[in-house]
Every structure is written in C-alpha cells, then in structure tokens.
Amino acid sequence: MKIHIVDDEIEVRESCEFLVNQLDYSLVEQWENGEQFIDGADLFEPAIAILDLRMPKMNGEIVVELLKKKGSVIAPIILTGHGELSQAVTLLKNGAVDFLEKPVSMAKLETALERAKNETEKLFYEYTIQQQFLQLSEREQQVSQLVYEGLTNREIADQLCVSVRTVEVQRSSAMKKLNVETLAEFVVKLSDLKEV
C-alpha cells in the first residue's frame, strides 16, 4: 500500500515517513504541497494520502475536495497542528477518512491507516467495476440490466426484439468484460455497480 505524505515542512514529512515505516508501510512518497501531489500522483492507484491541513498553494481541504471531484481512489487522512472541530466535520463529510492532530500518536495513526486502507480498497473496487461496465456496448449494458432484473434469456430476447442466441452472446461477452464466470457472480457484480 503506497502512502503519500503531503506537507510543506520537511521535518514533518520525515517524521511521518518514520512512523509509517514503523507500522510496516514501506512504500512512501513525499510531496511538498497539494498542487505537486495532485499533478504528480496516480489518483486511480489504491493509496493513502496523509495531508497537512495548512499548506501554501493548495491546502489539505482543497486537496480532499479535488480528490473527490476527480473520482480518485486515494483515501485522505488530514494532519493538523490546529485542530478545529467544525473543519474536521466538514472534511470528514467531503471524503477524509480521519482527522489527526500533531504530534500524532502511533496508535491513532495505525487506526487511521487501517481505516484508510479499507477505504481505498473499496474505492478502487468501485472504480474498477465502473470502468469495466463502461467497456460494455450499449446492447451488453441493456442485456446486463435485464439479467439483473431477473429476466430469462427468452424474456430478454422478446423485450429487445432479438434472438435468444443474440442475448446469450451479449450476456457472455458482458460477463467476460466484467471478469465473472457464473451467473451468480454476474448478478453480484451488477448489484455492486448499482450501489456505487
């Protein structure tokens, strides 16, 4: 799991990296400010970002908003020396996983990282199935929707005015693109997609 540490103070970045290394997270990338991070990081790779709230150029709050706006799978944790409860609540509503005050304790950081790891994995799964679904043709999407609604191949064929064989081919192609082998897996994945 990659950890991005975004802070304008090198001492804070170094001490954060030391702490996350102690917790067995060894893949760490440091960024001087939010702008560099947003422009340079892969926003669709599962990762955790530890963001300083107050930075020049682009503060932590703006970074959290941009991550959400861009549909990023990175789970942000806010780090601040100036804990303001109202700001924390807003940030948590906007997608931050946790809000930690400096100096951060190892136990709180460990809990926040575990929560963020679960969140980025969930976001990445949702992003992946959305991307897979976008690969389906319009007809494959229609057939998938009707399979999800519980219709048989014959009922789907009648509704779409196509042959049963066409429905079978479209369903098979959609299942392949969604990386599932059984009808049950297909329905579960379509269900997951509906929840995204």
Please state the structural category: alpha/beta
The CATH architecture assignment of the largest domain turns out to be 3-Layer(aba) Sandwich
Strand content: 5-15%
Task: Please give the CATH class of the largest domain.
Answer: Alpha Beta
* Helix coverage percent: 55-70%
**Gap between N and C termini:** 23 Å
Average pLDDT works out at 93
Strands, count? 5
SSE succession: EHEHEHEHEHHHHH
Poorly predicted spans: none
Computed CA radius of gyration, to the nearest angstrom: 22 Å
What is the count of distinct domains?
Answer: 2
InterPro entries: CheY-like_superfamily, Sig_transdc_resp-reg_receiver, Tscrpt_reg_LuxR_C, WalR-like, WH-like_DNA-bd_sf
Domain HTH luxR-type: 129-194
Modified residues (4-aspartylphosphate): 52
Pfam families: GerE, Response_reg
Q: Would you give an account of this structure?
A:
By secondary structure, this protein is α/β, with parallel strands linked by helices. It has two domains: 2-125, Rossmann fold, CATH 3.40.50.2300; 135-195, Winged helix-like DNA-binding domain superfamily/Winged helix DNA-binding domain (Arc Repressor Mutant, subunit A). The chain contains nine helices and five strands. The chain has helices at residues 10-22, 34-40, 60-69, 85-93, 106-134, 138-148, 153-160, 164-177, 183-195; strands at residues 2-6, 28-31, 47-52, 75-80, 98-101. The chain has a five-stranded parallel beta sheet, sandwiched between helices. Helix 3 (60-69) links the parallel strand 3 (47-52) and strand 4. Helix 6 (138-148) packs across helix 9 (183-195) and helix 7 packs across helix 8. The longest helix has 29 residues, at 106-134. The chain starts with a strand and ends with a helix. The modification 4-aspartylphosphate is found at residue 52. It comes from Wohlfahrtiimonas larvae. Keywords: DNA-binding, Phosphoprotein. Residues 2-117 form the Response regulatory domain. This is Tetrathionate respiration response regulator TtrR.
